[in-house]
Write a structure and sequence with these properties.
By secondary structure, this protein is of the alpha/beta class. It is built from 11 helices and 13 strands. The protein is globular, with a radius of gyration of 20 Å.
């Protein structure tokens, strides 16, 4: 079950999951090589660079300049730093599910295959000087990847997830000589959250109770992945003073997968925020005719608010900014 949830959480098309996933690329040129600052100057540093990873300390002689990312979060983070990855897993799916401002995949990035089973041959042919992976997903081929280049392996779900994302992002930035840029990007999250909080207060909507979920269809069954406060998306929204009404314990991602009946656990008065793909939206599709759905408090009181289908709820700093931006639009502030 954990493997299925993990696959769904990361957007695999293999289970017909049309789910979702952010915008700071403008702070630096997306085409810059790793190790250059916003003005195109090379930041070579001095001595070895030490990076903390889930597999222990990794040392690099100098900032990496040719990076392959095998997880969308880290591809997004490289782009946020102004670094164009040499290779990325699942280009098409990345472009579908991650549409946050500044997170667009630059042209010329080599698709190295599926994130679960990337092509080692394609990766090796790129001659990378760094590979970035998800620790859980890539344990099976870690040694083979390490034979190609140094590997940074990060765990996403360590609590609190928002702090973990920031930490991993900062470590990745060290590896590509972009520490200053990382700090600037991270500050934007707090700034955006404070701005949204202020707009909510001005509109008389401070402390609005919400629930947030991701709708999808798998194996012919429509489901919703509801997020509690262990999920990064909820932690980001809570920065803006919003209050998550979904309290189910969930899994390590902070997710509970339910059917339409499960949505009855949402508290009365809560606003329902959701993400669903345009061509697979249970909320406007199969649920819309269901009497249970029609009788839900947030449905009867017109508090159902779709977010952009490309709002990636399990991403990096650009996705965090996108969650805040889309929520502001949904709440009309």
């Amino acid at each position: 079950m954990r493997n299925l949830v993990r696959t769904l959480a990361t957007g695999s098309a293999a289970v017909a999951l049309t789910l979702v996933v952010a915008g700071c690329g403008e702070s630096g040129s997306v085409g810059d090589a790793a190790g250059g600052d916003k003005d195109g100057k090379k930041d070579t540093g001095s001595g070895a660079i030490s990076i903390a990873t889930a597999q222990g300390e990794v040392k690099l002689e100098k900032p990496a300049t040719k990076v392959v990312a095998l997880e969308w979060t880290y591809t997004e983070e490289l782009i946020a730093l102004g670094v164009t990855p040499a290779g990325n897993a699942d280009n098409k799916q990345y472009e579908t599910w991650i549409t946050a401002k500044g997170a667009k995949l630059p042209s010329g990035v080599t698709d190295v295959g599926n994130r679960n089973e990337p092509s080692l041959e394609k990766i090796r042919a790129l001659k990378p000087d760094l590979i970035v992976i998800d620790n859980d997903r890539s344990k099976s081929n870690l040694k083979q990847l390490q034979d190609i280049a140094p590997v940074l392996s990060f765990t996403y779900t360590t609590q609190p997830q928002l702090d973990t994302m920031k930490k991993n992002f900062t470590e990745l930035a060290k590896a590509v000589g972009k520490t200053n840029e990382a700090g600037e990007v991270i500050k934007r999250i707090d700034t955006a959250a404070a701005d949204l909080k202020g707009r909510l207060e001005k509109a008389g909507k401070a402390g609005t109770t919400y629930t947030i979920g991701q709708g999808f269809t798998a194996n012919g069954t429509a489901s919703v992945r509801m997020l509690n406060n262990d999920a990064i998306a909820a932690q980001v929204l809570n920065l803006a003073g919003l209050k998550n009404g979904w309290t189910d314990k969930g899994d390590t991602w902070g997710m509970t997968t339910v059917g339409v009946e499960g949505l009855t656990a949402a508290p009365k008065g809560a606003t329902f925020l959701y993400v669903a793909a345009t061509n697979d939206n249970p909320f406007t599709g199969v649920f819309a005719k269901n009497p249970v759905w029609k009788n839900l408090d947030f449905v009867k009181n017109d508090r159902v608010n779709p977010l952009d289908p490309g709002t990636w709820l399990f991403g990096g700093p650009l996705s965090a900014l996108h969650v805040l931006d889309e929520t502001g639009k949904a709440l009309k502030v």
